Amino acid sequence: MPQIPRIVRFTTRPERHAELGERLKALVIETRKEPGCIRYDLFADEAGRWTVIEVWRDMAASDSHLAQPLVVELMPLLEGFLTEPPHIEELEVVV
Prior knowledge:
- The protein has four helices and four strands.
- By secondary structure, it is an alpha+beta fold.
- The model has no long low-confidence stretch (mean pLDDT 95).
């Protein structure tokens, strides 16, 4: 099965940027321990966006991640942090 790479961007409300960043940092630390996680990195830019670059061994590992308590807890809170829905790019491994 091919790896599952994805880029997820979060555009935050300025007053909530730091708070979401702290939640995402905690999520990264725990996610990197999950079976099937190949890469899970967090980046910030000057435009007030957080970007997660993630790569999963397979779809089962990706699905398992989405069922983890920290992810489930964060999902309903995102609307209060963001100015728009998360932007998710599904990628395909070429080489």
